[in-house]
# Entry
Amino acid sequence: MTHLQTRRRVGPALAICASMIAGQALAQDDIIVAMQLEPPHLDPTSAAAGAIDSVLYSNVFEGLTRFMGDGSVVPGLAKTWDISEDGLTYTFHLQDGVTFHDGTVMDAADVKFTLDRARAEDSVNAQKALFAGITDVMVVDPLTVKVTLDKPNGSFLFNMAWGDAVIVAPDSIDDIKQKPVGTGAFKFVEWSAGDKIVIEKNPDYWGTPAILDKATFKFISDPTAAFAAVMAEDVDVFSGFPAPENLPQFEADPRFQVLVGSTEGETILSANNKQAPFDNVKVRQAVAHAIDRQAIIDGAMFGYGTPIGTHFAPHNPAYVDLTGNSAFDPEMSKKLLAEAGLADGFETTLHLPPPSYARRGGEIIAAQLAQVGIKAEIINVEWAQWLETVFRGKNFGLTIVSHTEPMDIGIYARPEYYFQYDNPAFQELMTTLTATTDPDQRTALLKEAQTTIANDYVNGYLFQLAALSVAKAGVQGLWTNAPTQATDLTAVSWDK
# Structure
């Protein structure tokens, strides 16, 4: 009662105070975005870590083309382009008045530098294959660059939208891993390793300016800590929320909004196809039949995720449902192991990077494999270790990872890729696909490609990762779906 009386007596003062608070809310111009994984460094053109793009794609770095939230590819630093009749020459007309964050002008010479660097013999670009068909990059004038291909490529404009193809400043390369310099609507401010990355609005941005003045990316790897941070409102957004079991609680709380969408992330149990016994297709098939996908989706992801039977996104019109090809069948698995001379099973390693789908899913998969006699030693690794040991070193038996790159079935045509699948027929199929522009023919080739890798049981195909994010109710403009691994803040604002 006393409290109510006090409120009545100071009503006018409270009204003024509330008005001030409302004004502050209207003027809110910064945001704190949490995510589970911290980038190993800040150069998207020299690492396979999707966490780099999660922070920097579109925000700090831009390419000739770019992905939108609905998956479409639109002009980026190239405002228009002309394609020759034979499909071999792309003439890009660049946006005028673009500057890098260090104040230098971005022009055709920077595009040439970027593409030549990515396709060079000593290139460390994680997606070097995107640039393999380029035979020449010529500066026509400061705002025009001509790119020549060795054969027509129906995916070329799509490829140029990847984070691995963003345009970089030549003078920034020495420090790019710690101090990225791009052309985006935000510029890099600071990186406190193990804690946060801060970006701020670029006042000299060539395009539509960002609405926010500042954004801070916080890194919270532990799912329990992630829940606590969101619930306490210490963060405004948690992109890729790692504890799906908590989402119903947020959905029931008017302070929050839950975004559930699709990603390009094929979550797979990767097998080292060059290492015995996984060099035997019957063993890989046995592993596939030992896995109960739905149990993994329910147990690790609390029902969020779509089962897959090949390396392709179910929302893509060319998707083929091949889940029946590797249905859960432990008896079939044991039979195949016996046929491969491994009736008593075998031992292997299972490397698990930090994401919940891997750590939680790995425990379930290890138990499922044990039921058919496969003893998988779980080895928990941080991302830097995973990149070094598994991705680059190829020193593993099994691992779990979600491949979040868009339309990336072409990685199966690269024998040197970490799971080391070497099938000349598949490689020829991908070469044909690259040279094909007719949509119906491309669809037919993509369906054949999906079927080929499913029948070869290259990897254990688990589920398509769902895009799960939690945000405060007033945040608007976030992507619901994730057509590429990005937390695009260029159109994000607070509801007024």
Observations:
- The longest strand covers residues 256-271.
- Residues 439-455 form the longest helix (17 residues).
